[in-house]
């Protein structure tokens, strides 16, 4: 999370077009919906209309599109024709899910696209397209505005275009849902990046980092298994987890009390109970958990149950490491996992 002091510093650099800050931050302009480099020649926005990000991916996930004047995705050197064509294609159809034939239609090799985007932006083309699409679909969640406002602000001239983009991720058009089977989704900003929270009026169903690989599939699986529509909104469990996450990152909370809905098999739930039993600041191996369950040969099944957890941080799957002491995998990324473990070791009991 960027501190208030650093935001002031970044804003002064933006006003001065200070080239020394190139690559250190990007600025999202609320009034235009674009994000820029520090040296953008466009008229400077007011400070209160700026949001600062450390990476272009963070700006994309916050629903901002690349500025056409300073071209933040083209710096420092001019991008290749492959990257230019694909960036333009995504902007023309940001809601699109890319498949092999789409690359062939543009005479672009899929592996080349992946490699060039990874080298230039630190993320693959698919990750870039997903970030842009996710940012658009979640903009309504983040702002709390009406569907029509979100539709217009994302550049859709027709309601059908926006509803299609929304439903590709949420699974239901925002105005065509059954009130008796509705889960609400909200955007929560945290120190480690934005998270999506999904809940009904009684319990929290899902809490994941927005940029987690496969999040769209998780949302779709949740929607189908609960036979619910997922629409933008806030419930008391969402308000509760937002407060508790703020306290957790401040180092003043170690145990979460927000009610949870565990959508899993009996075995998965037994694993998750073991995860919650791991004290903050400590770790366990998959084998440790299998032994605690009285099923020492179920190490692989424990790992799969750990990966199936849809309530990040709250059910602390980040506290499970390999028997060798290595971090192992984590849906939110190993950098976040390492940060969480270090943070929890520093929190006083």
Quick description:
Helices cover 44% and strands 11% of the residues. It has 14 helices and 10 strands. The chain has helices at 4-16, 56-61, 81-92, 100-105, 110-121, 125-143, 147-153, 159-170, 215-226, 236-250, 266-277, 286-292, 299-307, 334-346; strands at 26-29, 34-36, 50-53, 65-66, 182-188, 195-199, 204-209, 229-232, 284-285, 320-321.
SSE diagram, text form:
Elements: H1 4-16, E1 26-29, E2 34-36, E3 50-53, H2 56-61, E4 65-66, H3 81-92, H4 100-105, H5 110-121, H6 125-143, H7 147-153, H8 159-170, E5 182-188, E6 195-199, E7 204-209, H9 215-226, E8 229-232, H10 236-250, H11 266-277, E9 284-285, H12 286-292, H13 299-307, E10 320-321, H14 334-346
Parallel strand pairs: 2-4, 5-8, 9-10
Antiparallel strand pairs: 1-2, 1-3, 5-6, 6-7
Helix pairs in contact: 6-8, 12-13
3D structure, described in words:
The strands form three sheets. The chain has a four-stranded mixed beta sheet with strand order 3-1-2-4. The chain has a four-stranded mixed beta sheet with strand order 7-6-5-8, with helices on both faces. The chain has helices spanning 4-16, 56-61, 81-92, 100-105, 110-121, 125-143, 147-153, 159-170, 215-226, 236-250, 266-277, 286-292, 299-307, 334-346; strands at 26-29, 34-36, 50-53, 65-66, 182-188, 195-199, 204-209, 229-232, 284-285, 320-321. Strand 5 (182-188) and strand 6 (195-199) form a beta hairpin. Helices cover 44% and strands 11% of the residues. The protein is built from 14 helices and ten strands. Residues 140-145 and 153-157 have low confidence and may be disordered. With 349 residues, it is of the alpha/beta class. It catalyses: a 4-O-methyl-thymidine in DNA + L-cysteinyl-[protein] = a thymidine in DNA + S-methyl-L-cysteinyl-[protein]; a 6-O-methyl-2'-deoxyguanosine in DNA + L-cysteinyl-[protein] = S-methyl-L-cysteinyl-[protein] + a 2'-deoxyguanosine in DNA. This is AraC family transcriptional regulator of adaptative response/methylated-DNA-[protein]-cysteine methyltransferase.
